[in-house]
Task: inverse folding
């Protein structure tokens, strides 16, 4: 019945045969479902004849939200995951949506979902997101889909304000921040902008065509990987490519298969963090660059050896 209601809401008119095909049932069952909806106060009209069919009464407005149990669970889990990943656009919005959904659910489903919300844990640490203005985010997404140029008011990290036209190729969410990737008319080149630094979006009349095969995610991650880091690291990890890729961060690292393993190019601000990552792997590795990384690994090894020796002395029985 809920599926029938959704079909009638999404289509001006559907014949009994069309509805039966969509619902994988027969016309008699469709008539029974329509009668049940009428009993619930939903005005489903049936018209006979060649151009007849089923439709909702003109002017009838559906309730704002009708969810099955599985759909409600999917929405709640999505909201919880978005909050954890820093993906929300505004803190009150997600909390308000959860309250409204739980309020409209029957008690039999409300209690299990509340238990899920209170007991669900994540293996990854929560991300503190940089929330953009919802209207700006939606306007950029619509312009990207419609392939229309927009004007943006942008504030750089130096607090410099510029007005520029942008052909938005795509919107990307990455580690707590929203980005838009596209052709910047002001600089006449491909640029990436943090959406939380865009104050407003103004539609333009121009249209554009994105480059064939352009992937906004690949461009963003490669751009971030080429950022200004202190150290350029090159290491060969003597292990299988798929397994190594699962253990390393997705951004800021380039992996190239080699006969002896995987050649890793990475950028790092601090070498002690890189030393910890390499030490955590189960495969041997060869450091090509920089030499200072060897010193960071030796320091880590000395600290581990000292900790092990301290534990050994503590465990000795008194004489």
Result:
């Amino acid at each position: 019945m809920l599926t029938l209601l959704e079909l009638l809401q999404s289509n001006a008119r559907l014949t009994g045969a069309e509805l039966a095909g969509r619902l994988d049932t027969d016309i008699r069952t469709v008539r029974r479902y329509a009668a049940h909806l009428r009993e619930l106060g939903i005005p489903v009209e049936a018209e006979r004849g060649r151009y007849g069919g089923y439709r909702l009464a003109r002017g009838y407005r559906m309730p704002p939200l009708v969810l099955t149990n599985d759909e409600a669970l999917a929405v709640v889990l999505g909201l919880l995951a978005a909050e954890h990943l820093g993906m929300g656009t505004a803190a009150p919005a997600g909390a308000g949506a959860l309250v409204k959904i739980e309020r409209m659910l029957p008690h039999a489903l409300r209690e299990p979902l509340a238990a899920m919300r209170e007991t669900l844990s994540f293996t990854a640490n929560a991300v503190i997101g940089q929330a953009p203005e919802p209207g700006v985010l939606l306007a950029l997404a619509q312009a990207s889909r419609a392939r229309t140029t927009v004007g943006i008011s942008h504030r750089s990290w130096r607090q410099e304000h510029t007005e520029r036209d942008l052909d938005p190729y795509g919107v990307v969410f990455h580690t707590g921040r929203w980005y838009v990737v596209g052709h910047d008319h002001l600089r006449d080149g491909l640029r990436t902008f943090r959406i939380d630094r865009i104050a407003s979006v103004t539609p333009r009349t121009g249209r554009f065509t994105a480059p064939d095969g352009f992937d906004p995610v690949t461009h963003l991650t490669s751009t971030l990987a080429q950022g200004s880091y202190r150290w350029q690291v090159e290491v060969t990890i003597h292990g299988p490519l798929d397994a190594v890729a699962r253990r390393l961060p997705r951004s800021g690292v380039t992996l190239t298969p080699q006969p002896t393993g995987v050649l890793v190019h990475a950028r790092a601000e601090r070498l002690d963090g890189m030393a910890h990552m390499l030490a955590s792997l189960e495969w041997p590795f060869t450091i090509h660059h920089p030499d200072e990384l060897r010193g960071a690994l030796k320091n880590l090894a000395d600290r581990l050896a000292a900790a092990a020796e301290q534990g050994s002395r503590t465990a000795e029985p008194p004489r």
Q: What stands out?
A: The domain at 2-56 is CATH 1.10.10.10 (Arc Repressor Mutant, subunit A). The mean pLDDT is 83. The longest strand covers residues 161-174.
